[in-house]
């Protein structure tokens, strides 16, 4: 697993994973603390504790392979940033339905940008695909979901964030491993300290690897002798392909596909993990979504697949293979896995899912979210920048507007509130 392994949720609603504030859930631009403000003064008992903790970790770091001089150099002026502890303890006020998740992560903008990247990096993508046996579209889809193709990769200095997490809060021993791994990366000279910025939890670069994952799986693909997932797109793309290969990717096989389930078929107990041969699924009457047979191409009657219905029995259903599990291991959330899988299909030219999500208020693209934010600004709400990222302030403003407009106050930036804003504007223009 690449990210911090305290991801939760597998059914219907999802707790947003550790790094997802970069993409989805929280403002990163307006600097508003999500919870109680942290102690920021450096002259505090807490800082004394921090310095003591860092001094105490020295021998452990050294036995993990960090040189004494490296440790001293990178901890000499290290100060804590307690805002990462707030992030660690953050409990989202809103849960995110999977259709909101997917509509923001797999929208027309990300598909178009991905196609452009595929053209721009065609040669290196083809070479990486050849070398690791993973399709170009899957590599690019990971890149698009993880960092919006390198646009959003995090702003927290890694040593500071991981140093703080090593000394405060839950899971200190896990974060210490990542803290020491960061120092070993610096020691080896793969990256410079000022390049090492990432999510509050320490995932960094184009493909948001944790430092220990970097040590295990990053590759030098541009041949300059350094493994650089921050500044080298070839290194980042090949490292992603290597990750998926090591996670068990089966060359030439699909991740899965949307299926049609016969009326009345019981789906209780079915899941991604509960794999059965395709022949069993065919006998129960399941077909591909276009009605065609399950066994096609490289698949055989004995290939095993799990039936995944991420929004329950009334939403889209998918048969997923081992390659979905490989994608899943990148993020340990089915919602993320499905976003990457679906984006890879869209990059191949496949359309959106055929079956609608079971909601009367479908999700919005990032362009539509920016439109909602424009309406909110016009209505006088202080929601920070119009960036398509829906933070708590935007959600609270939406909730107030939903109440004013007689809608269910969910706080979601869905199609309903967008439609209501558009209609209200049209009425005002008529007057
Ligand atoms: Ca390199």
Automatic annotation (TrEMBL):
InterPro entries: Lysozyme-like_dom_sf, MltB-like, MltB_2, Peptidoglycan-bd-like, PGBD-like_sf, PGBDSf, SLT_2. One of its GO terms (biological process) is peptidoglycan catabolic process. Residues 50-345 form the Transglycosylase SLT domain. Residues 366-420 form the Peptidoglycan binding-like domain. GO terms for molecular function: peptidoglycan lytic transglycosylase activity. PANTHER family: MEMBRANE-BOUND LYTIC MUREIN TRANSGLYCOSYLASE B (PTHR30163), TRANSGLYCOLASE-RELATED (PTHR30163:SF10). NCBIfam families: MltB_2. This is Putative membrane-bound lytic murein transglycosylase. It comes from Acinetobacter baylyi (strain ATCC 33305 / BD413 / ADP1). The lineage of its organism: Bacteria, Pseudomonadati, Pseudomonadota, Gammaproteobacteria, Moraxellales.
């Amino acid at each position: 697993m690449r990210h911090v392994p305290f991801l939760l949720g597998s059914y219907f609603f999802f707790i947003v994973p550790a790094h997802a504030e970069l993409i989805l859930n929280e403002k990163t631009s307006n600097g508003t603390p999500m919870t109680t403000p942290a102690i920021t003064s450096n002259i505090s008992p807490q800082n004394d504790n921090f310095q003591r903790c860092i001094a105490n970790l020295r021998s452990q770091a050294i036995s993990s392979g960090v040189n004494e001089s490296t440790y001293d150099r990178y901890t000499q002026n290290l100060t804590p940033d307690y805002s990462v502890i707030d992030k660690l303890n953050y409990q989202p006020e809103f849960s995110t339905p999977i259709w909101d998740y997917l509509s923001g992560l797999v929208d027309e903008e990300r598909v178009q940008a991905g196609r452009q990247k595929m053209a721009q990096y065609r040669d290196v993508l083809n070479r990486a695909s050849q070398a690791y046996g993973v399709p170009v579209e899957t590599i690019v889809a990971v890149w698009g979901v993880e960092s919006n193709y390198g646009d959003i990769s995090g702003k927290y200095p890694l040593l500071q964030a991981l140093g703080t997490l090593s000394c405060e809060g839950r899971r200190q021993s896990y974060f210490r491993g990542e803290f020491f791994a960061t120092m070993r990366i610096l020691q080896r000279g793969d990256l410079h300290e000022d390049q090492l910025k990432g999510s509050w939890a320490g995932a960094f670069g184009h493909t948001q690897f944790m430092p220990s994952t970097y040590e295990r799986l990053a590759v030098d693909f541009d041949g300059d002798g350094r493994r650089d997932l921050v500044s080298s797109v070839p290194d980042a793309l090949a490292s992603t392909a290597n990750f998926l290969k090591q996670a068990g990717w089966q060359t030439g096989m699909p991740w899965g596909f949307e299926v049609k389930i016969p009326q009345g078929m019981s789906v209780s107990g079915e899941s991604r993990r509960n794999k059965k041969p395709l022949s069993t699924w065919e006998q129960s009457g399941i077909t591909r979504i276009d009605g065609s047979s399950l066994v096609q191409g490289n698949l055989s009657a004995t290939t095993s697949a799990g039936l995944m219905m991420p929004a329950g029995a009334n939403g889209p259903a998918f048969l997923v293979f081992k390659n979905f599990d490989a994608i899943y291991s990148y993020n340990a959330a089915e919602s993320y896995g499905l976003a990457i899988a679906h984006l890879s299909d869209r990059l191949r030219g496949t359309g959106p899912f055929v079956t609608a999500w079971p909601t009367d208020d479908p999700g919005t693209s990032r362009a539509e979210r920016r439109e909602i934010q424009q309406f909110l600004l016009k209505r006088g709400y202080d929601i920070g920048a119009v960036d398509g990222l829906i933070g708590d302030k935007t959600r609270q403003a939406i909730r107030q507007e939903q109440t004013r407009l007689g809608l269910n106050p969910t706080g979601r930036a869905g199609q309903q509130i967008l439609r209501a804003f558009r209609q209200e504007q049209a009425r005002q223009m008529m007057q």
